[in-house]
Each structure stands twice: as structure tokens, then as C-alpha cells.
Write a structure and sequence with these properties.
Elements (H helix, E strand, L loop, with lengths): L15 E3 L5 E3 L11 E7 L6 E6 L16 E5 L5 E4 L1 E2 L4 E3 L10 E7 L6 E6 L6 E11 L2 E11 L7 E14 L6 E8 L2 E2 L2 H4 L3 E2 L4 E4 L7 E7 L14 E9 L1 H16 L14 E2 L2 E15 L4 E6 L2 E2 L4 E7 L9 E6 L13 E3 L1 E5 L3 E5 L9 E5 L2 E4 L5 E2 L2
Parallel strand pairs: 3-21, 23-31
Antiparallel strand pairs: 1-2, 3-4, 4-8, 5-6, 5-9, 7-8, 9-10, 10-20, 11-12, 12-18, 13-14, 13-17, 13-19, 15-18, 16-17, 19-21, 22-24, 24-28, 25-26, 25-29, 27-28, 29-30
Length: 399
């Protein structure tokens, strides 16, 4: 995954003051012409090959397209100062490696030589991969609206300062591939915030994640309790299959850049606020060289188990009680019961050879359904949270 960093620089402040007499006072400010500088950006991680973007800086009032530097020599050096990669220019200012990748726990520097300019240098240490030990996803109600409760725990090296970026995603099963009979699934981002008031103010919400440091915790294992933000309650998507946590150990450069960029965006809406400089770790230029290392932890809802149903025979309209485990995860209504319409047991989705039954009551251990019209003597099919299971015994339809 590659993120393109944009450099923002605020060098002047314009404002107008409306007077009571409806007069307008305009303050003109002369903006000095600043010499352009190289802008070097790279976000390294062990899952991607080396990639560095090189361009020229622009004035805050310059509306021309960004000028990419295409004649630079971009080198990657290890912590011993040895050149391990010379990147090749691709397009749009990107210099890339064909196969080389950074390694977790190692420090690297990027050196960019541009004709008639000083060597531009940036450094970062690739964090080690976070070790996630547990995660849970649960549903709850908040003000009569469906909400989510999440918890995740992972190891932390308390001997040094560490920084983390966390996001949560839901997995949805919306059907079956007719040719392969594999489930069709989508992934959706889930908004979360801390459920602990003591640390909530120190966790920075980003566009699709939250950013924090381990200074909020005093242990070798970090346990985060999260919830759906109040303004998203009622619109939460926990997924009908489950979800997963994505935790990135991020470098200090990543953390500093994200926090100062967020702060700059906030104060930019206030014409009287003091401008905030976005963090940069580039010598003889602008931009940022940063890094991260990612771990993913899946939380999938358990497969349903049908142990029995009573009565074992009946007519359309009769009530059947199914017993088992993990049959329904209320309030996540993601369970469907089907009766087969072909005595040979052949069926495909949607609704070819099967007919859905009306669910009257449901719990994790019992489901009551009405036998639908068209049902034939055969097994009962139950689908719940991305899993499909057929009963071992057949339900006999009385004609």
C-alpha cells in the first residue's frame, strides 16, 4: 500500500473585516517569492517495494500543476551507509524498485541527487510488526440504535516509545458465485473511537483510522476498548460474516506528520489562528520519509450447528423448532432458513431448488420457523454469518 504525502505550506494570511457601517477594509499583504525546493516523500513498509516521489515545491498561490523531477538519482542506503538500491524513474515523479523491499527493525536513508542542487536526505526506521493477541466484535444497542463494541489487544515494547495506527473493517456476505459456489463478499470500513474516557482525548481520529502512542498505556500489552461513535450509531455495519482489525506500528515521522497535518487543517479554518508547520524530516528539502509495519487480526462469527428439529414431519404452515448452537446472533439478523423444493436435494442460489421460511423467533440456540409452501421432504438448509449448513436428518413433508 502506498500513501502519497502532500506538502502544505501556509506563508500568508488574508482577511477582510466587515465594519458596522457596511464599509469593507481589505488588507493587502505582499508575499515574497521563495526559491523552490525539492519535495521528497516516501512511506515505506515491508509489504511493498521501494517507492519515492520527487517534485519541486510550489508557492501557496501557484496554481500551476506540480513539477515532477525526472532526472534525479535516488538511492536507498542501509544503516551502515551502504547503497542497497538505486531506484528507476517510473512516472508522475515516482522512482521505484522492481523487487527490493525494506525489512522490519532496520533503518534506511533515502538520498536524492539532483543536478545543480545539494543532496536531499531523509531517514526512517521500519517498525517491527505488531503482535495482535486477541480481538472481539460485538453488537449492542445505544439509545435504541444498533452500535458496535470492539476490543483488541497486542504486545508493546514498553522500553521504547511506539506509535500505532488502527482501523476496523467489516466483512459482508451478499450471495453466492453461481459458477464456483464461493461466497461473494465485500469489505467495509467501520468508524470507531475509544470507549475509555481517560484516553479518548489523546487518540487522534484520522480519515479511516485512529492514531495514538503507547504513552497512554503502562504495560507490555495494550488493550483497547472501542465503540461506534455516537454520531454513527444506527448506521454501524458489523458485517454478517465478521470483521478484522488492521494495526500498523508506525514510525515517529509518520506520527509527527499525521498529527501536525491534522492540526494544520484544523487551524486553517480559523483566520486568526497561528499557522502550523507540517513536520518534515528532509535535509536540504521538504517532505517526509516515514514507515510502518502491518498486522491483521480476523474475527469471524462461528459456524451454526443444527443438532435437531421438532416435529420431524408436518405440512406447509406448521411451526418447526430448530435447536443447535450459533444459530442466530441477535441483534445481527443474518440468519436465513430454507426448505428444499427438490426431493433429490439439488439447489442453487438464488431460490432455485430452495424456498425461504418465515422466522418467527430466534436465539443462538433455537429458531422457530413456519414450513413454507413448496417444501419437499429433505434436509433443512440454514445460512448464518457466511456459513451454510444442512441438517443431518430430513424433514418429512406431509402431502
Amino acid at each position: 500500500m502506498h500513501l502519497n504525502f502532500n506538502y502544505f505550506k501556509k506563508s500568508a494570511l488574508f482577511f477582510q473585516v466587515l465594519l458596522v457601517a457596511s464599509c469593507e477594509l481589505v488588507v493587502n499583504v505582499d508575499i515574497p517569492e521563495e526559491p523552490r525546493k525539492p519535495v521528497v516523500n516516501s512511506l515505506m513498509n515491508p509489504d511493498s517495494t521501494w517507492s519515492v516521489n520527487v517534485s519541486w515545491s510550489k508557492s501557496v498561490l501557484d496554481e500551476k500543476p506540480t513539477t515532477f523531477i525526472e532526472n534525479a538519482i535516488v538511492k536507498i542506503k542501509n544503516q551502515k551507509g551502504e547503497v542497497i538500491e538505486v531506484l528507476v524513474y517510473d512516472k508522475h515523479g515516482y522512482y521505484r524498485s522492481a523487487n527490493g523491499r525494506p525489512e522490519g527493525g532496520q533503518e534506511y536513508s533515502v538520498e536524492v541527487d539532483i543536478p545543480e542542487y545539494k543532496t536531499v536526505i531523509g531517514r526512517t526506521r521500519i517498525p517491527t510488526k505488531p503482535e495482535i493477541t486477541n480481538g472481539t466484535i460485538k453488537a449492542s444497542f445505544f439509545n435504541s440504535k444498533l452500535s458496535g463494541k470492539y476490543s483488541v489487544s497486542f504486545k508493546d515494547n514498553a522500553a521504547e516509545q511506539n506509535y500505532y495506527d488502527l482501523s476496523v473493517y467489516s466483512i459482508h456476505d451478499f450471495g453466492l458465485n453461481q459458477s464456483t459456489e464461493e461466497p461473494l463478499r465485500t469489505v467495509g470500513f467501520t468508524f470507531v473511537q475509544s470507549d475509555d474516557p481517560a484516553i479518548a482525548a489523546d487518540i487522534l481520529p484520522l480519515e479511516q483510522s485512529i492514531l495514538f502512542s503507547d504513552k497512554l498505556f503502562n504495560a507490555d500489552e495494550i488493550i483497547l476498548h472501542l465503540k461506534t461513535p455516537d454520531n454513527h450509531a444506527g448506521h454501524v455495519t458489523l458485517g454478517n460474516v465478521g470483521g478484522f482489525f488492521v494495526i500498523k506500528s508506525v514510525s515517529k515521522e509518520y506520527y509527527d506528520y499525521a498529527t501536525t497535518l491534522k492540526l494544520q487543517y484544523k487551524v486553517s479554518k480559523d483566520p486568526l489562528a497561528q499557522p502550523v508547520a507540517v513536520s518534515s524530516n528532509i535535509e536540504n528539502g521538504l517532505g517526509v520519509i516515514a514507515s510502518y509495519n502491518t498486522s491483521v487480526y480476523y474475527v469471524l462469527y462461528p459456524a451454526p450447528i443444527m443438532t435437531s428439529f421438532t416435529p420431524s414431519q408436518g405440512r406447509p404452515g406448521d411451526i418447526i423448532r430448530i435447536e443447535g448452537e450459533n444459530l442466530s446472533q441477535y441483534p445481527l439478523s443474518s440468519t436465513t432458513v430454507y426448505f428444499l423444493t427438490n426431493e433429490d436435494g439439488h439447489y442453487t442460489k438464488p431460490y432455485d431448488g430452495i424456498v425461504p421460511a418465515q422466522i418467527l423467533e430466534s436465539s443462538p440456540t433455537t429458531i422457530s420457523v413456519a414450513v413454507p409452501a413448496g417444501a419437499k421432504t429433505n434436509s433443512i438448509l440454514l445460512e448464518s454469518f457466511g456459513h451454510r449448513v444442512l441438517s443431518s436428518q430430513k424433514f418429512v413433508v406431509i402431502e
